[in-house]
Amino acid sequence: MASHSINLRLILVSGKTKEFLFSPNDSAADIAKHVYDNWPMDWEEEQVSSPNILRLIYQGRFLHGNVTLGALKLPLGKTTVMHLVARETLPEPNSQGQRNREKTGESNCCVIL
């Protein structure tokens, strides 16, 4: 693996994974297009109709198309794991659900017994 590249291990909802090499200058939209154009044969059942609906999730957040890997400060020469999902639109950052959670004081945290 090249030390100036970022190795992305993409995980589908089905649990299938595949690794791709990208540059820090590549954006989420570039990655979606590359993956779509080089769709792995063993992902045939998950094939989508357009790269425009492929979304990357990193650390629980959807990445907007213009976000580059460099902007995320991903380590060069290392493997970073992201989820790849098919979704028409991204959730709004200030959706109603988010505001409601802030008002009630609930969190999305887990309780470990």
From TrEMBL:
SUPFAM superfamilies: Ubiquitin-like. It comes from the Eukaryota. This is Ubiquitin-like protein. It is a lipid-anchor. PANTHER family: UBIQUITIN-LIKE PROTEIN 3, UBIQUITIN-LIKE PROTEIN 3 HCG-1 PROTEIN. It is found in: Cell membrane. It comes from Maylandia zebra (zebra mbuna). It holds the Pfam family Rad60-SLD_2. Residues 6-84 form the Ubiquitin-like domain. The keyword Cell inner membrane does not apply. Keywords: Cell membrane, Lipoprotein, Membrane, Methylation, Palmitate, Prenylation. The keyword Cell membrane applies. One of its GO terms (cellular component) is plasma membrane. InterPro entries: MUB (IPR017000), Ubiquitin-like_dom (IPR000626), Ubiquitin-like_domsf (IPR029071), UBL3-like (IPR040015), UBL3-like_ubiquitin_dom (IPR039540), UBL3_Ubl_met (IPR047977).
